Prior knowledge:
The first copy, chain A, is of the alpha+beta class.
Amino acid sequence: MTYQALTPETLADYLRGVPALQTLLGDLDALDIVEVGDGNLNLVYFVSSRSQPGRSLVIKQALPYLRLVGEGWPLTRHRADREANALLQFGALCPQHVPAVFHADSAQSLIAMQHLRDHIILRKGLMEGLTYPNLAEHLSTYLAQTLFHGSDLYLSAAAKKQAVAAATNTELCKITEDLIFTDPFEDNPTNAYNPALPRAAIARVHQPEVRLAAAQMKWAFMNRAETLLHGDLHTGSVMVNPTDTYVIDPEFAYYGPIGFDVGLLLANLLTAYLSQDWHRVQAGQDPAPVQAWLLGQVAAVWDGFADKFTALWAAHDAASATSFMGSARDEASQRLFREAFMQQVFHDALGFAGCELVRRTLGLAKVAEIAGIPDEAARALIEVRTLRLAEALLLGRDDFQFISEVIDLAQECRTLTL
Amino acid sequence: MTYQALTPETLADYLRGVPALQTLLGDLDALDIVEVGDGNLNLVYFVSSRSQPGRSLVIKQALPYLRLVGEGWPLTRHRADREANALLQFGALCPQHVPAVFHADSAQSLIAMQHLRDHIILRKGLMEGLTYPNLAEHLSTYLAQTLFHGSDLYLSAAAKKQAVAAATNTELCKITEDLIFTDPFEDNPTNAYNPALPRAAIARVHQPEVRLAAAQMKWAFMNRAETLLHGDLHTGSVMVNPTDTYVIDPEFAYYGPIGFDVGLLLANLLTAYLSQDWHRVQAGQDPAPVQAWLLGQVAAVWDGFADKFTALWAAHDAASATSFMGSARDEASQRLFREAFMQQVFHDALGFAGCELVRRTLGLAKVAEIAGIPDEAARALIEVRTLRLAEALLLGRDDFQFISEVIDLAQECRTLTL
């Protein structure tokens, strides 16, 4: 069948042709089909049985253009294959944090997957001031499992090179290259500034030293094929409830630097932190408890990730005849390498976090917790703090040793005034 | 025709089937065909017309095993395609320094190319104490032209990603990964030590800090897909005469870090420098003049490469609507980025040079100017100096700012005694 963007009507017909999905859903004549896609790129349908409420699934179909902009920004549908492959690979590594894939159809650029019925988008939960007791524990497990197993530390050199070539994802990488690393760092027409944001605050991140840092992070993003990344791991790509955490939407998946996913996630926890000063106060609440919890999550995501990644690596080396360093049983060298390696990933993550913070403030695709603040002056205050945090991370990334220093910095930026 | 390793007899038959080569050679019934392959991987024939001495060419054919070791180390012949592609690409960028390709046959893993009749292998010339007035000028041009034009600084992001995927060269990269970055840094059975070399000298480069540096350079080699490299740019891959310089044998070509080719070349100029204390003295000559010339070449290769690479980059940015950094005409930021970028390439090159120096001393594939010194004690002295230079480059690579500091270091290492 040639590709066709599905409507609720044609989707029902499509489901009839896939026995596995029929079995999952039961009665195909009594389905609720709702389009819920609020992302930038795809159609997303919730499909559920009216008679048997437990039976449901999600259908995600790639559109041949950037939904955020419209048909004027065409995109191939290639990304649906990238997403299906990434979901399968990440799901095999940590099934408890990745939605199950029931069916993937390359011709229709379509994936049928687990419906996370009792979960909400993490970004939304955080904006409401909700906290999740297992969040950092789960996300650090996800990061360590996925980022370690795609790398040369685990795979054979041949398997890794094959995986790199197979993960080429030119179009979606281009979006990241432009919208995270380039446009926000100059006065580009794709940017959108809050009118109340002082010009001087924007000019600070358009200074040569900050632009240098952004260009270096862009170079790292485009050249360092270290592991299969999610590629877009912000808090809108995480679904949660008090017990579960799922990472969805890896259509930007490609081989890139290990610190990229980590950095994007940390940056989005930091925008959640800084923006509570508006959202909690609006809700008549004290922001302090949720802010303290959020900074605790920043620390626990990094430390948990670093500990688990290192543990996976050490266990793999101990169980293998040869490791990345060679065949000698030389624990002193291996420990030294692991420590230096994790320090480098930390610095990379902070640099990527800095870029993400700038783009979420000045760039085309913003974050709801900041862009959604209706009071422009109040929004500008949060934006100024976010940009200062970004600047300090970008310029100082190689000087940080512990995540506690990042937390101190975030607290300091939170006290800035316009 | 299925693949067949050619003999002088079957090669003559083969030539009859390729009109372009017939035209080049003229009378196919009066050919001199000599097998001259002294490399590790291939058959190499010089084919010349007996009646018309100006007519000749080189036929290079990949063997399905590592010639150095024998049929017990099988290799696919895939590398012949890599070499043909690299010769064509590099040749288009600087035809004056790359042999012309007349014919490439993927099925026979065979390339017919320009016969460099009046040229010798640079390593041989340097061992004889010869100097070449244009060497650094030519090699720095070659390096700048080839390394710049394969990178994201010149290519569109899409073209670059396609080029990366097309240049996958798993088997030959594995040789480099093992024989340059891994085995020499531990007591691996592939190593071969001069019996007169003190155990303590070997132990110094098997220390955790040096192994850490080697592992970091290996990580860079395996993960940083920055540009299409020659991949094996030692002085045995360069052919010279007093006026010309050609870079041959790019079968290890793949996308890797810009500093790799530069570092390998610098390392091989440094082994030429250190080994003159044997070769010139043996020939009853003063080593000082050729050593001074060699250190001058080290400086001129680096400085020439850095200047030309930067100039190509600046000219490209000036002529383009957008550059790697964006669309803003912001010369201050671009200059800052270029300087930081070249400094990073310099540090990388020194790290790669350090690895190359260790492997050429302790590893499987050595260099004739050191391994060919028959007096074991005299050889050990040169080896100790080479290893100390390597160690200082590996441990201090990020602290060097100018090539003059490397030259001071090399001169200092030259005074070491056993």
